[in-house]
Amino acid sequence: MLTALYSWLTKGLYYPLVPLVPARLKRIQNLPPGPFDIWFQAVSVGEVAVAEALVGALLQMDPGLRVLVTSTTLTGLDRARKTLGHRVEVAPYVFDFPQLVKAALERVAPRIFSPIETELWPNMILEASGRGAHLLLVNARISPFSFPRYRRLRPFMAEILRRFSAFLAISSVHARRLEALGAHPGRIHICGNAKFEGLSRRITSCDLGPWFDLLDLSLERPVLVVGSLRQGEQDVLAQSLKALFEAVPSLFVLIAPRHLTWLEPLQQSLRGQGLDSQLLSELRSGVPRRASVIVVDEIGHLFCLYGLARVAFVGGSLIPKGGQNLLEPAAWGVPVLYGPYTSNFEEARGLLEDKGGGQVVRSSEDLTKTVLAVLSGSSGGPSGEKAREAAQEASGAATRQARLILEYLSARRP
């Protein structure tokens, strides 16, 4: 009853998107006809990273698989095309509009439809289930921010979740949340987070030499990389950087904002502390580097830039945004600092802190003190080698999930 009501409501909900429908549907209809073995839906860049790990593991086990990866956002789609387009089919995701969903499923005819993490589109789930596809929620997670909202909708969520054949959860915490929302406990498998898979392999694709040249950096110069900084964190960072440059004048800082829509407020905060900065794009255009703070105004470089760091701070964690991937700098053997709000990466934080490779900072004074401890090699800061150990220990989740996916691929629907 509730899902039928949702299907009716979405006819009006998606009406403003109707002009975009033909282009998205055309991309789906231009795909080779189904059946596809697996259809992964990844909302954006983070979920595409999971798809990359799963596709890599699956094709290693069965190179003949027919796989489709879709993404909702343009940035996710761009990354999927670059990293997966030579191995599998890639297309934009259709909106959760009943007629559009039916047309897409008619073309793709997936044996398995696998939303990634928390991609619960009711019309797609109901229609795919009705056509006999296995539904697997891979890298399944329910954030602490979403959980109370979903719990208020438990009857609706339970009706959706009962359509799934399996939930491949990233941890026991997320498994319990799924069960509380109505997922059948016998269908929940705890597999670990595939987002942490293959970080060591990704390092081999990074050529750091051109970065040293572009940034006019020497190997000896201490570098702090600030990754995925969110608006609202810049003042704490700027205050800390002022103190750090007073203590370590040779310090070099790279700041990669999570989004590129607030570069001016970021640079304004830096100027407010008397700090000059330049955009990375300026250096690319041939402008000589004059500043010791570079703001990365391009996407897709952060993982490789962590390889330049002596110490890293991962943003989205000083304010309640859940953090970002703490193990990316750790994979390089870089000590990792982060704020207290890391709910999206609880397992990674636990690993880092258990090993001694990561440390929480709560203020500009904390950040300054801990960066100085790392740079001086004192015992007051986390260890890069211990961070690398944590990243290595987190691997294996993609392989575990891929094996389960293949089991369901050969199984009949109950």
TrEMBL record:
Top class in the EC scheme: transferase
Classification lineage: Bacteria, Pseudomonadati, Thermodesulfobacteriota, Thermodesulfobacteria, Thermodesulfobacteriales
Protein name: 3-deoxy-D-manno-octulosonic acid transferase
GO biological process: lipid A biosynthetic process; lipopolysaccharide core region biosynthetic process
Broad class of where this protein is predominantly found: membrane
Gene Ontology cellular component list: plasma membrane
InterPro entries assigned: Glycos_transf_N, Glycos_transf_N_sf, Kdotransferase
Pfam families from the UniProt entry: Glycos_transf_N (PF04413)
Organism whose genome encodes this protein: Thermosulfuriphilus ammonigenes
A Gene Ontology molecular function term of the record: Kdo transferase activity
Catalytic reactions on record: lipid IVA (E. coli) + CMP-3-deoxy-beta-D-manno-octulosonate = alpha-Kdo-(2->6)-lipid IVA (E. coli) + CMP + H(+)
